[in-house]
Amino acid sequence: MDDPPARMRSLYDVIPRTTTSPPQGRGLLPRWAKAWRLAAAGLGLLALLHGTLKDSDDYFPFGSMAQYATAHNLDGQTRSTYILAETESGDEVRVPLNATGTGIGRAEVEGQLGRFIEDPSLMQVIADAFRQLHPDRDQYTHMYLKRSVYQLRDGYVVGDPETELLAEWEVVR
Amino acid sequence: MNEGTEQTTVTSRVAAPDAPAGPRHPTRARRLGTRVADWWLPDIPRSRVGIMRAVIYLFLIYDILYLRNDVIPHGYAPELYQPLWIGRALPLPEPSVGLAQTLQIVIIVGCLIAATGRLPRLAGWTVALCYFEWLILSMSFGKVDHDHLALVVAAFVLPTIGRARISDHGTTQAGGWAFRCLQVCVIATYFGAAVAKWVRNGAPFAWGNSAVLTWAFIRRGTDLARWSLDYPWLLRIGQWVMLIAEYLSPVILFLRGKALYLGAAFFLGFHVITFLTLGIHFLPTVVCWLAFFPTEKLLPRRFRPE
Asked: Helix, strand, or coil here: B144?
């Protein structure tokens, strides 16, 4: 694996930018190259601290590591959202809320749940996305945004889940 | 204190030969600054950078095709686009199928070139910018995953190293800084998660006694996990172990040898468990753990640096 001759290497390989030493030796950095690297690392850490203290993942990629950070109450409720649909052939199916099914994940629907409840026509967007991703599959005619609610008591699940209907939408073709 | 000063002066002179003439006896703050700078800028073998490049750039292709694979489907639902702060601050394009497909092609071609070590800057920066936009389009629909911090930082720091191939000899300080950035980001993913739990719940350890694993297993637990819903005390023990490990994770940055391998094994084992019980793998963080290890020692002898 000999190196190619210099003229065959790309311009970007030949022109040294941050290091002037040949690839054989120690590639020590000049002073300014060290300085900007230290400054960049410091700024990155500050940005992470900012996102964390603001408790917001809006500042991606320096947002708060907030997945699963909420301490759920041992006597509280656990909710899970889903969409049911009636299809053209009369079946009732669960709408695949994931990357390959509709492109929209369950957590994304939950992240915008207020919008869906306020404006159920947003479910049309999901029906349309499904139609474009899977034109040969059984298409949706009516959609129900639902939520299962599990009651906890001292950390144990008690009873069967209750189902709430949050919104519904007649799909337009 | 006086005994050590002379020696420190010598080392700081060696480390920064063109430094302006400072005080003859550096202050404690100055010495601490030098030590912090030295920690951030170690010398590492060029071949280690070459290996990391191959792994990261090939993994990016896998990531956009099989992990963050919702960007092209998102193009069919631009009405649900809720731009993150960066998308509101910068004039980024609206999601569309054509944009997503273009990004996909550029990322794949760029990664294939950069993985070989060729055009480390041109291909590297192209991949970094396109991959960043890909992630923004993926995460701007109401849900942000935080397993990508180290990987997106990898995309941006690898091009700053310049030339460094698997077959190269010698060392690179630019590579040392990039690898430190990856190490810090891997650890920040855990430590930041602990601090986030503190900030959100108002007390550093309130999360440990909560029903968070019950909540998670009800919502997306696999068959391997559901039995444990009958034993909430067991889940609480698991939460405490995780929370304490997250708070202690920065220790990993200063471990060496066997202790470092044990620390890594603990966190990688944690990811295996969350994958088996919740289907959450954190592979983008897992692959960046490689930045902690002297991977060049695995190379066949003829490639190995002297």
From this structure: coil
Q: Mean pLDDT across the stretch A24-37?
A: 89
A120 burial (CB, 10 Å; 0-12 / 13-18 / 19+) is middle
Contact residues, chain A, for B153 at CB < 8 Å: 44, 61
pLDDT score recorded for residue A24: 67
pLDDT at site B210 = 94
Query: Is cis: bond before B300, omega within 30 of 0?
Result: no
Question: Interface pTM (ipTM) of the complex?
Answer: 0.86
Contact criterion met (CB below 8 Å) for B225 and B278 = yes
In 3-state terms, what secondary structure has residue A172? coil
Partner-chain contact A73 B210, CB within 8 Å: yes
- Which B residues 248-267 touch A at CB under 8 Å? none
Nearest CA distance, A55 vs chain B (angstrom): 7
Q: How confident is the model at residue A142 (pLDDT cuts 50, 70, 90)?
A: very high
Smallest Cβ distance to A23: which of B122, B146, B170?
A: B170
Burial bucket for residue B294 (CB in 10 Å: 0-12, 13-18, 19+): exposed
The confidence score (pLDDT) of residue B304 equals 63
**Considering chain A, what percentage of its residues have pLDDT values greater than 70?**
86
Contact at CB, A122 and B164, closer than 8 angstroms: no
pLDDT of residue B302: 67
Give the residue carrying structure tokens 């002073």.
A31
Contacts of A112 in chain B (CB under 8 A): 80, 82, 141-142
Res A172 pLDDT > 60? yes
Q: Around B6, how many Cα atoms within 13 Å sit in the side-chain half-sphere?
A: 2
Q: Do B139 and A70 touch (CB under 8 A)?
A: no
A5-25 per-position pLDDT tens digit: 444 444 444 444 444 444 567
Mean pLDDT of chain A: 88
Q: Which helix (H) or strand (E) holds B45?
A: strand B44-45
Task: Extract the residue ranges of chain B whose pLDDT is less than 70.
Answer: 1-24, 302-306
3-state secondary structure of B203: coil
Is there a contact between B135 and A99 if contact means CB atoms under 8 Å apart? no
Between A26, A52, A104, which is nearest B196 by CB?
A52
What phi-psi label fits residue A103: left (phi over 0), alpha (psi between -120 and 50 degrees) or beta? left
DSSP reduced 3-state for B28: helix
Spatial CA neighbour of A9 closest among B174, B175, B120:
B120
CB contact under 8 A, A155 and B136: no
